[in-house]
Amino acid sequence: MSKYDVLHLSLHGFSTAENTQMLYFLLRSASQLDTIYGDELLGRDYPELVVLSACATGQGKYEDGEGKFTLARYFLQSGSNKVISSLWNLDDTAGSLLMRYFYQELKLSQNPTTALRTAKLKLLTKYKNFCQPYFWSGLG
């Protein structure tokens, strides 16, 4: 049982539909690049809710009898019950606003599904330039 309620990762995720081994997070610093591969995520203690505000964390290869291999799947396999992930690259500004509203709503509702839906509606209401589904519908 994790001592945290939420794990939030906001970085670059990479997935490919061709290879289940090519699922990773890319970490950058001023002097180097590093990666965390999906299989390195297994067997750790994660909280009930994991938010992957990272590009392409819901993309991956589908295999018959196994389902879809995504970065989100590794957190579910390790015990998290709820994972929010992205189906495509997120716009930085829209993603940041959406996450701000999501956490405001999560404090009130304690329900990630309701909080994400309300946050998306709030983004649509307050920022007309983000009304295209590209900006908000890929996160779920």
Cα Rg: 15 Å
Classification by helices and strands: alpha/beta
Q: Separation of termini?
A: 24 Å
Q: Report the biggest beta sheet as strand number plus sense, adding barrel if it closes.
A: 3 strands, parallel
What is the count of helical runs?
3
What's the order of the H and E elements? EEEEEEEHEHH
Extract low-pLDDT stretches: none
Shape summary:
globular
Q: What is the total domain count?
A: 2
Strand content: 15-25%
Helix content: 25-40%
Arithmetic mean of pLDDT? 90
Q: How many β strands by DSSP?
A: 8
Give a brief outline of the structure.
The chain is of the alpha/beta class and 140 residues long.
Summarize this structure as a short list of keywords or feature phrases.
140 residues, alpha/beta, 3-stranded parallel β-sheet, 3-stranded antiparallel β-sheet, 3 helices, 29% helix, globular
Provide structural commentary:
Strands 1-5-8 form a three-stranded parallel sheet, with helices on one face. The protein has a three-stranded antiparallel sheet with strand order 2-3-4, with no helix packed on it. It has a two-stranded antiparallel sheet with strand order 6-7. The longest helix is centred in the C-terminal third of the chain and has 18 residues, at 92-109. The radius of gyration is 15 Å and the shape is globular. Strand 3 and strand 4 form a beta hairpin. It has two domains: 1-89, no CATH class; 90-140. With 140 residues, it is an alpha/beta fold. It has helices at residues 71-77, 92-109, 112-126, and strands spanning 6-9, 12-14, 24-28, 33-37, 49-52, 61-63, 67-69, 82-84. Helix 2 (92-109) crosses helix 3.
